[in-house]
Amino acid sequence: MATLIQHTEVPPASAAIDRRGLSDEQLLDLYRTMLRIRRFEERVKELFLEARLYGSVHLYIGEEAVATGACAALQPGDVISSTHRGHGHCIAKGLELGPMMAELMGKATGYNHGKGGSMHIADLDKGMLGANGIVAAGIPISAGAALGFWIRGEPRVALCFFGDGGANHGAFHEGINFAAVYKLPVVFICENNQYAQYQSVQQDLPIEHVADRAAAYGIPGVIVDGSDVLAVYAAAKQAVERARRGEGPTLIEAKTYRFEGHFLGDPEPYRTKEEVAQARASKDPITRFAAVLQQLGVATAERLEQLDEESRAEVERAVEFAESSPEPGPDLLLTDIFTGADADGRSLPRAG
């Protein structure tokens, strides 16, 4: 019988100003990544309100430390799966802002030729298995990728992001159970931003912590401060190394907070404006890490402002790239469609 490992409280790294073994440049890279996510999302919000984007938009503002810290713990050959709130995951995994913005604008130069939009950006070359509009769908996808690594004997790891709402879906239990049984090299990260689409997470859960469910599968469950990028990095690094050693999956619950609504335009009747304002003042991961960098002597306020200006300029270049890109033509209509093959291995004709 497997030994059940109870969840472990991971203290905020910045309280002790623990560098977690990172160099000055690595610390600045974390800050730069969070800035790129924030400025990209802010610009997306503006463009959406100006009706210059297609489809719905789910912003990652306030949660930047989770994607940044977790992806920093990965190696280039590792992969991630994402959610409907996936822009931050894409950027943290190294995707370029220009093709991302082009995808949101429905342009041919987008990562999916403008056919996927905000909720379906993917780049297999960068190890981004795809954002996904289906809640919890990334869990079995990541488990499947990890199964492939395990079968082929490749020292690679899959990392799955999902929200607190996804923790109540069947795919959560089935995917994690399967991964635990076979000790697959996968890390599951629940971004608990306190609210599902229309209500508090505590109205959906009979327990206090999603990470407590790890005990049911005999795997480690870790609770981490999701507004502390160094704490997220440390927890993810430990879990990734464990997975790569063949010791199986870990369930990490990052306690975070989304500053915007569930979707852009959400009237947010489930929380007060005062609560959101308090969260912005006390839980902003970028403001928090900026203070840490200055306390460590890694960067001055002027240097951090320069990085911010560079991020804003990069986002504007992405907008210009997207707006100057062509619309997808008829030649792309039937591309990127899985058709499968017959019993003899011959490709089946495309539908239509």
Features of the shown structure:
352 residues, alpha/beta, Rossmann fold, six-stranded parallel sheet, 6 strands, globular, disordered N terminus
> Roughly how much helix do the residues carry, as a percent range?
40-55%
As laid out across the biggest beta sheet, the strand order is: 1-5-6-4-3-2
If you compute it from the alpha carbons, what radius of gyration comes out, rounded to the nearest whole angstrom? 20 Å
What proportion of the residues form beta strands (DSSP E)?
5-15%
Order of helices and strands: EHHHEHHHEHEEHEHHH
Q: What do we call the CATH topology?
A: Rossmann fold
Mean pLDDT: 91
Give the tally of β-strands.
6
End-to-end gap: 53 Å
For the record, the CATH class is Alpha Beta
By CATH, the superfamily comes out as Thiamin diphosphate (ThDP)-binding fold, Pyr/PP domains
CATH-derived architecture: 3-Layer(aba) Sandwich
Instruction: Look at the helices and sheets and give the structural class.
Output: alpha/beta
Low-confidence stretches: 1-15
Largest sheet: 6 strands, parallel
